[in-house]
């Protein structure tokens, strides 16, 4: 791999890890559109770069998911009974959706990604509503079903599910601290199942060395190592920087990156 691509993957990992730690948002929203740009610059065809970006991003967020889960568990923020109930649905939904993604065109995947990131960005821009005073009873069947839906969407846009899990748990009356911590723990089975599913897909139409299925392994290793370094830094600075303002800037960045990816493949 040429030195410029090594530096590009490292820089992307550093930035995605820092923002994930600072704002509590997984790196997929940044990684997928930027990976699409990098793969296009490497000479890959537009027909397949989105699939490769989704798989590579999903595999790269495994390490940040582990780091985030451990940090929240140490602070007592994870409600493990909820994680255990959601995990089966999350794993099945995420794994199955990777096979669905393999059959969807790059253009349609890019449209879905852009629309979903627009939803995420709007949620970040609007004022937060207070959670209900009392938690609502949640059955295991509901948690498993909701987990399956979250897994499907997470695989199609390569995220750890936080933008869906946190609002759902908050709506169910779970305190925000626990909703975020539990979501972080749910993100690990999402990333593992998604990474495995994308690894098992057939390579999408190009002869790319060190690519297994829809995952470009050198990119995964470089981004994982870089994000593992900067995620804790972002988390430490979360209490010192104007996070509310930064979230608005980040929301606009998500929209611009998504539109750029959409235009690149269409």
Automatic annotation (TrEMBL):
Looking at the Swiss-Prot or TrEMBL record, what is one Pfam family this protein matches?
Answer: TauE
Q: Where in the cell is it found?
A: Cell membrane; Membrane
Q: Which residues cross the membrane?
A: 48-66, 78-102, 108-125, 137-159, 179-201, 208-229, 249-265
Primary site of residence: membrane
Q: Which domain of life is it from?
A: Bacteria
**Which keywords does this Swiss-Prot/TrEMBL entry list?**
Cell membrane, Membrane, Transmembrane, Transmembrane helix
Topology versus the membrane: Multi-pass membrane protein
Is Cell membrane found in the keyword set?
A: yes
Q: Does the keyword Cell membrane apply?
A: yes
Family statement drawn from the similarity comment of this UniProt entry? Belongs to the 4-toluene sulfonate uptake permease (TSUP) (TC 2.A.102) family.
Please state what the protein is called.
Answer: Probable membrane transporter protein
Which organism is the protein's source? Alishewanella longhuensis
């Amino acid at each position: 791999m040429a030195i410029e691509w090594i530096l590009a993957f490292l820089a992307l990992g550093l930035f995605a890890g820092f923002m994930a730690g600072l704002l509590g948002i997984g790196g997929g929203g940044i990684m997928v559109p930027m990976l699409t740009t990098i793969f296009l610059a490497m000479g890959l065809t537009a027909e397949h770069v989105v699939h490769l970006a989704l798989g590579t991003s999903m595999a790269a967020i495994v390490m940040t998911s582990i780091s985030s889960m451990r940090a929240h568990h140490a602070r007592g923020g994870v409600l493990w009974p909820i994680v255990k109930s959601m995990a089966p649905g999350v794993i099945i939904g995420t794994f199955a959706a990777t096979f669905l993604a393999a059959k969807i065109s790059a253009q349609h995947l890019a449209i879905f990604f852009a629309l979903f990131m627009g939803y995420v960005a709007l949620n970040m821009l609007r004022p937060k509503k207070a959670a209900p005073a009392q938690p609502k009873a949640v059955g295991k069947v509901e948690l498993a079903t909701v987990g399956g839906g979250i897994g499907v969407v997470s695989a199609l846009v390569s995220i750890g599910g936080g933008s869906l899990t946190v609002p759902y748990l908050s709506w169910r009356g779970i305190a925000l601290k626990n909703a975020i911590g539990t979501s972080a723990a749910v993100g690990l089975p999402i990333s593992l199942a998604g990474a495995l599913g994308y690894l098992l897909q057939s390579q999408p139409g190009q002869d790319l060395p060190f690519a297994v299925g829809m995952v470009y392994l050198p990119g995964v290793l470089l981004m994982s190592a870089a994000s593992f370094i900067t995620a804790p830094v972002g988390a430490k600075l979360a209490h010192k920087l104007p996070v509310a303002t930064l979230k608005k800037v980040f929301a606009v960045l998500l929209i611009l990156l998504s539109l750029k990816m959409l235009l690149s493949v269409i």
